[in-house]
Amino acid sequence: MTTATVYTSTFIFSAKEFDDDFHRLNDEIASRARAIPGFLGEEAWENPDTGLHSEVYYWSDLDALHQLVGMDTHREAKRLHEHWIGPYRVVIGQVLSEYGTAGLGLDHVPAGTGGETAAGPGVLG
Fold first, then answer.
1. Residue with more model confidence, 62 or 123
2. Could you tell me if 103 and 117 are in contact, meaning their C-beta atoms sit under 8 angstroms apart?
Protein backbone atom coordinates (compact mmCIF):
# COMPACT_ATOMS: atom_id res chain seq x y z
CA MET A 1 0.00 0.00 0.00
CA THR A 2 1.23 3.51 -0.79
CA THR A 3 2.61 5.46 2.15
CA ALA A 4 3.86 8.57 0.31
CA THR A 5 1.60 10.99 -1.53
CA VAL A 6 1.58 10.32 -5.27
CA TYR A 7 -0.36 12.27 -7.90
CA THR A 8 -1.27 11.33 -11.45
CA SER A 9 -1.98 13.34 -14.55
CA THR A 10 -3.80 11.28 -17.16
CA PHE A 11 -4.31 12.49 -20.72
CA ILE A 12 -6.89 10.44 -22.65
CA PHE A 13 -7.37 11.31 -26.31
CA SER A 14 -8.50 10.23 -29.73
CA ALA A 15 -5.56 10.41 -32.14
CA LYS A 16 -5.49 11.88 -35.63
CA GLU A 17 -2.44 11.79 -37.91
CA PHE A 18 0.83 12.68 -36.17
CA ASP A 19 3.28 14.76 -38.21
CA ASP A 20 6.89 15.84 -37.57
CA ASP A 21 5.76 18.86 -35.53
CA PHE A 22 3.72 16.63 -33.24
CA HIS A 23 6.62 14.25 -32.68
CA ARG A 24 9.02 17.13 -32.02
CA LEU A 25 6.73 18.69 -29.40
CA ASN A 26 5.73 15.37 -27.85
CA ASP A 27 9.34 14.20 -27.53
CA GLU A 28 10.46 17.51 -26.01
CA ILE A 29 7.58 17.61 -23.54
CA ALA A 30 8.24 14.02 -22.46
CA SER A 31 11.99 14.60 -22.11
CA ARG A 32 11.53 17.77 -20.10
CA ALA A 33 8.80 16.20 -17.93
CA ARG A 34 11.13 13.33 -17.03
CA ALA A 35 13.73 15.87 -15.84
CA ILE A 36 11.36 17.64 -13.43
CA PRO A 37 12.19 16.87 -9.78
CA GLY A 38 9.16 14.95 -8.53
CA PHE A 39 8.58 12.98 -11.74
CA LEU A 40 8.12 9.34 -10.72
CA GLY A 41 7.40 7.53 -13.99
CA GLU A 42 4.87 7.17 -16.77
CA GLU A 43 2.81 4.68 -18.67
CA ALA A 44 0.97 4.76 -21.98
CA TRP A 45 -1.92 2.71 -23.24
CA GLU A 46 -3.82 2.40 -26.49
CA ASN A 47 -7.17 0.74 -27.09
CA PRO A 48 -7.15 -0.48 -30.70
CA ASP A 49 -10.92 -1.07 -30.61
CA THR A 50 -11.76 2.57 -29.75
CA GLY A 51 -8.63 4.33 -31.04
CA LEU A 52 -8.20 6.02 -27.66
CA HIS A 53 -4.76 6.64 -26.18
CA SER A 54 -3.90 7.26 -22.54
CA GLU A 55 -0.72 8.81 -21.14
CA VAL A 56 -0.31 8.67 -17.35
CA TYR A 57 2.43 10.60 -15.54
CA TYR A 58 3.15 10.01 -11.83
CA TRP A 59 4.31 12.86 -9.57
CA SER A 60 5.50 13.17 -5.99
CA ASP A 61 3.82 16.57 -5.58
CA LEU A 62 1.54 19.00 -7.35
CA ASP A 63 4.34 21.56 -7.81
CA ALA A 64 6.08 19.09 -10.13
CA LEU A 65 2.87 18.62 -12.12
CA HIS A 66 2.41 22.40 -12.34
CA GLN A 67 5.91 22.68 -13.83
CA LEU A 68 4.81 20.40 -16.67
CA VAL A 69 1.64 22.41 -17.26
CA GLY A 70 3.61 25.68 -17.28
CA MET A 71 6.18 24.59 -19.88
CA ASP A 72 6.24 26.65 -23.06
CA THR A 73 6.18 23.50 -25.21
CA HIS A 74 3.16 22.19 -23.31
CA ARG A 75 1.31 25.46 -23.91
CA GLU A 76 2.27 25.30 -27.61
CA ALA A 77 0.97 21.73 -27.89
CA LYS A 78 -2.31 22.76 -26.24
CA ARG A 79 -2.64 25.64 -28.69
CA LEU A 80 -2.10 23.31 -31.69
CA HIS A 81 -3.80 20.17 -30.37
CA GLU A 82 -6.65 20.12 -32.90
CA HIS A 83 -4.12 19.29 -35.65
CA TRP A 84 -3.25 15.95 -34.01
CA ILE A 85 -5.98 14.87 -31.62
CA GLY A 86 -9.75 14.73 -31.46
CA PRO A 87 -11.76 14.66 -28.27
CA TYR A 88 -9.69 14.49 -25.10
CA ARG A 89 -9.98 14.36 -21.32
CA VAL A 90 -7.47 15.19 -18.56
CA VAL A 91 -7.77 13.61 -15.11
CA ILE A 92 -5.66 14.72 -12.14
CA GLY A 93 -5.75 12.27 -9.27
CA GLN A 94 -4.19 11.29 -5.98
CA VAL A 95 -3.17 7.65 -5.59
CA LEU A 96 -4.66 6.16 -2.45
CA SER A 97 -3.32 2.64 -2.83
CA GLU A 98 -1.72 0.20 -5.23
CA TYR A 99 -2.04 -3.59 -5.38
CA GLY A 100 -0.33 -6.32 -7.36
CA THR A 101 3.03 -6.15 -9.09
CA ALA A 102 4.71 -2.83 -8.22
CA GLY A 103 5.86 -0.91 -11.29
CA LEU A 104 4.06 -3.11 -13.84
CA GLY A 105 3.60 -1.07 -17.03
CA LEU A 106 5.74 1.88 -15.91
CA ASP A 107 8.36 3.43 -18.18
CA HIS A 108 11.05 6.02 -17.61
CA VAL A 109 11.33 5.62 -13.85
CA PRO A 110 14.02 8.15 -12.83
CA ALA A 111 17.56 6.78 -12.66
CA GLY A 112 19.11 6.39 -9.26
CA THR A 113 15.89 5.32 -7.58
CA GLY A 114 16.31 1.65 -8.36
CA GLY A 115 12.60 1.74 -9.05
CA GLU A 116 11.97 2.62 -5.41
CA THR A 117 10.60 5.71 -3.73
CA ALA A 118 9.78 6.65 -0.16
CA ALA A 119 6.60 4.68 -0.77
CA GLY A 120 8.62 1.45 -1.07
CA PRO A 121 9.41 -0.80 -4.02
CA GLY A 122 8.28 0.42 -7.40
CA VAL A 123 7.08 3.90 -8.18
CA LEU A 124 4.00 3.72 -6.04
CA GLY A 125 5.09 1.14 -3.50
1. 62
2. no
